[in-house]
Amino acid sequence: MSEIGRFKPVKLICGLIYSRPEIWAKAIEILPLKFGPIDLESQAFPFNFTDYYEPEMGKDLKRSFLSFQRLIDPERLPEIKVMTNLLEKEFQPFFPELKRPINLDPGYLTSSALIMATTKDFSHRIPLNQGIYAHLELLFTKKGVKLLDWTYPDFRQSEYHIFFQKVREIYLSQLKETKIQTTP
Q1: pLDDT of residue 181
Q2: What letter does residue 46 receive in the DSSP assignment?
Q3: Which residues contact 134 (CB under 8 A, 6 or more apart)?
Q4: pLDDT, tens digit (0-9, with 9 covering 90-100), for 29-65
Q5: What is the pTM of this model?
Q6: Which terminus of the chain has a lower count of CB atoms within 10 Å, N or C?
Q7: What percent of the chain has pLDDT over 70?
Q8: Does the residue 124 lie in any domain?
């Protein structure tokens, strides 16, 4: 019989969709207060794979990612997603001309996968807690990043993969420093 153990800590990341640089600036001011220091920021990628968010958020949307220094327990993902949904509402008074100034998509990275939190159910998503589902977005292999049938179109971009591989390197280094074993 296998011993039941604790989960390895994971690397918290957050995707941000927004229309203006001042919204991004506000996010990197607020998010570290909730989740600790940022250790890596991505560039701003054009977010033009869907117009779903435009009525609420405006045109010329961008997506950026943040990686946070502190590792977290993966069981916290639902709590963090609920918190980011509430944080989105806190941006409204700063940008009253937009119905929804920012979309915050938390997730985490392990040595082998990128998991994103979502409130939307689908056949390949795993229910967690508080109405939040885990969405397996990408796999990391010795050959690089592996896409899945359901990987979102924007997450198929090699520029995203480069960022997440850098985050993975930081994460693996952190695990080594704390002597936590990883799986290949």
Answers
A1: 54
A2: E
A3: 77, 115, 116, 117, 125, 126, 128
A4: 999 999 999 999 999 999 998 899 999 999 999 999 9
A5: 0.93
A6: N
A7: 97
A8: yes
Give the separation between CA 184 and CA 175, rounded to whole angstroms. 13
How far is 169 from 177, CA to CA, in rounded Å? 12
User: What six digits make up the tokens of 67?
Assistant: 């990686």
- Which residue, among 80, 60, 64, 56, has the nearest Cα to 26 in the 3D structure? 64
> Is 3 contained in some domain?
no
In a domain, 1, yes or no: no
Over residues 82-88, the mean pLDDT reads 97
Q: Is the pLDDT of residue 184 over 50?
A: no
Token pair, residue 88, equals: 């989105």
Q: For the chain, how many structural domains are there in total?
A: 1
Both tokens assigned to 5: 């153990």
Q: Residue 9's CB: how many other CB atoms inside 10 A?
A: 18
157 lies in some domain = yes
- The CA radius of gyration of the chain, in Å to the nearest whole number, is 16
